[in-house]
Write a structure and sequence with these properties.
Structural class: alpha/beta
Distance between the termini: 11 Å
Radius of gyration: 19 Å
Helix content: 25-40%
Shape: globular
Largest sheet: 7 strands, mixed
Strand content: 25-35%
Number of strands: 18
């Protein structure tokens, strides 16, 4: 099969790789219909994370080709959407709604690498969700978004306690932040303030439900949020970047007693002042999203055409052109790149 391999920072190639097979009786092998490039894939691309001939990709939709003998809920021929973290969906932590911390959790990028024609998915029953039937072509981008960015944006909104009557601030205008805007709208937020400096992303944020745009950053950004919220700050803030600056922006934009849902991936060197956190009196909740918790509902809304998160993909390329997709996202010429197979 053909698959994306990152040899070193900035060096992305599409190469032949052995076809995956069933290893454990709980596995499934799927033939991907579409995959994509994630903002987190840019960290190794830019040399922030180590990379050495690494199989890439963790977002995926496709058709089941093989199942292990212990798989019960997924059948050959099913069209499936999977989480970017594997889970059995039966352990106590899964049952509490935190499948990304399952006792069997493993990042799909480590287990498989889904920027490829085929992928072996461990714990298929707990990781994959079948759609009601074979989807129409126009639904595939949205179903693919559910695999990570939509589910992650949704978790951020839930973690931030977004709900009716609340004002929400979204820090970060990448794909996850934009999905946080969409989630906030669907969860009933009264006002959604997107922090963005890019006209194309501002336009999409408004389409997804943003009522206000704030371009300022740092102290000026916080002051603008306070101005828009009667000096109090927002009830709920979604942090979707992962830098020290973005986390402090989020915390300082939150009113006392408010909630920050953080899903930006932080890296070495990011630290937060504990004394400021202590006196801020805000709730912090976040981490790798338990996408599997939300998949059934997200798939239903997409299937019924209530939401169209697939609009976040603004560049579509064949898998063989993955290197160009990485360049486009790195250079901010694309918000998110969909790879066809």
């Amino acid at each position: 099969m053909r698959a994306v391999v990152m040899h070193s920072p900035g060096d992305v190639r599409v190469e032949d790789r052995p076809d995956p097979t069933i290893v454990d009786p709980t596995d499934a092998v799927i033939r991907l219909t579409a995959t994509c490039i994630c903002g987190s894939d840019l960290w190794p691309y830019r040399g922030v994370e180590p990379v050495d001939h690494t199989n890439m990709g963790h977002e995926y939709v496709g058709v089941v080709e093989q199942v292990g003998e212990d798989v019960r809920t997924i059948d050959v021929g099913d069209f499936v959407v999977g989480s970017f973290v594997t889970s059995d969906n039966t352990c106590e932590i899964c049952q509490a709604g935190y499948q990304s911390k399952c006792v069997h959790a493993e990042f799909v990028s480590v287990a498989a690498g889904t920027q490829a024609q085929l992928a072996r998915i461990p714990h298929a029953d707990g990781t994959l969700v079948a759609t009601p039937g074979q989807p129409d072509a126009e639904l595939i981008p949205s179903l693919l978004a559910a695999s990570d960015v939509l589910g992650t944006g949704w978790f951020a909104a839930v973690a931030a306690e977004v709900g009716p009557g609340k004002t929400v601030v979204v820090v970060g205008d990448g794909a996850v932040g934009l999905m946080g805007v969409l989630a906030a709208r669907e969860l009933g937020a009264e006002r959604i303030i997107a922090m963005s400096r890019h006209a194309d992303r501002q336009s999409l944020a408004r389409e997804f439900g943003a009522t206000d745009i704030v371009e300022e950053r740092g102290a000026a950004g916080v002051a603008r949020i306070k101005e828009l919220t009667g000096g109090l700050g927002a009830h709920s803030v979604i942090e979707a970047v992962g830098t020290e600056e973005s986390m402090l922006q989020a915390i300082r934009s939150t009113r006392g007693g408010g909630h920050v849902g953080f899903v930006g991936v932080a890296h070495e060197g990011v630290s937060l002042p504990l004394d400021e956190l202590f006196f801020a009196e805000v709730h912090l909740h976040g981490g790798p999203a338990p996408v599997r918790r939300f998949l059934p509902e997200l798939i239903r809304m997409i299937w019924e055409r209530r939401i169209d998160p697939g609009k976040v993909f603004d560049l579509t390329l064949p898998l063989e052109d993955a290197a160009e997709g990485y360049r486009a996202m790195d250079e901010r010429r694309a918000i998110k790149v969909l790879l066809t197979l």
